[in-house]
Specification:
This protein is mostly helical. Helix content is 62%, strand content 0%. It contains five helices and no strands.
C-alpha cells in the first residue's frame, strides 16, 4: 500500500508542476490547507480521501480502486 501512496504523492507533485502551481496556489485553488498539500506530496499515510479528491479534481481526476496482485498480498509476511 505504501507504494500506492508514493505514486499518488509523485503524481500530485508532477501535476502541480505541470500546471505551474506552487503548493500555496494549489491549496487555495483546491480549498484545502497548505499543510495538507505538503502532507499529500510527502506521502503521509493518513489523509482524508475527500480532500485528496478536492486536489485531484483540479486536474480532472479522482481516487478509485486499483487492481492489485491478490496472491502477493495474501502471502506477504
Amino acid at each position: 500500500m505504501r507504494e500506492n501512496l508514493t505514486e499518488l504523492s509523485k503524481h500530485i507533485k508532477l501535476k502541480r508542476k505541470q500546471n505551474h502551481l506552487t503548493q500555496p496556489e494549489l491549496a487555495r485553488k483546491a480549498g484545502v490547507g497548505l499543510r495538507f498539500v505538503r502532507d499529500l506530496e510527502q506521502g503521509k499515510t493518513t489523509l482524508r480521501m475527500d480532500k485528496v479528491n478536492d486536489v485531484l479534481r483540479l486536474f480532472g481526476e479522482t481516487l478509485g480502486p486499483v487492481a492489485m496482485d491478490r496472491e502477493k498480498l495474501l502471502h506477504h509476511e
